[in-house]
Amino acid sequence: MTLEEIREKLEEIDFQIIAAVGTARSMYVEALNQAKAGKFEEAKATVAEADKLFAQGHDFHHDILAMQGQGVEIPFDLMLVHAEDQMMSAECFKLVALELMELYEKKA
After folding, report:
1. Mind listing the pLDDT tens digit for each residue in 57-81?
2. Residue ranges of the alpha helices (H) in the chain?
3. Between 1.20.58.80, 1.10.760.10, 3.20.20.70, 2.40.240.10, what CATH number should domain 3-107 receive?
4. Model's pTM, two decimal places?
5. Do the beta carbons of residue 107 and residue 38 sit within 8 Å?
6. CB count in 10 Å sphere of residue 45
C-alpha cells in the first residue's frame, strides 16, 4: 500500500467511526429523553439500537488496529484522533445516560 492509499483508507475509516458513534451518542441522548418522559421500554430499545452502532464504530476502529498489526505504518491522523474522541464521548455518555435512566425509572 502506498502512503496515499493508506491515507485514503484511514480517512474512509475515520468517517465511518465518526458517523457510527456520533449517531449512537445521539441515540443515547434520545433514550435519556424517552426515559425522562416515562417511556422506559422505548428508551431501552433505543439504547439497544445505539449499542449496535457503537459496536460498528469499534469494528471500524479495529480495522485500523489490524492494519497496524499487519505491519502497515499508520501516519499521524488528526481525524482519527477526533474519531477516537467521539468514541470515548459516546461511551461516557452511554454510562451517564444509563444511570440517569435507572433513576428516572425508580422515581416513576
Report:
1. 999 999 999 999 999 999 999 999 9
2. 3-36, 40-69, 78-107
3. 1.20.58.80
4. 0.92
5. no
6. 13
Task: Give the confidence band of 108 by pLDDT, cuts at 50, 70, 90.
Answer: confident
Q: Which residue in 58, 61, 62, 82 is the catalytic one?
A: 82
User: What would the pLDDT profile of 34-57 be if each residue is shown by its tens digit?
Assistant: 999 999 999 999 999 999 999 999
- Give Cα separations from 28 to 18, 52, 108 (angstroms): 15, 12, 20
Q: Examine the residue annotation and report whether 62 is marked as an active-site residue of this protein.
A: no
In whole angstroms, give the CA distance from residue 84 to residue 73. 18
What phi and psi values does residue 39 have, to the nearest 5 degrees? -95, 70
* Alpha-carbon torsion angle 32, 33, 37, 40, nearest 10: -30
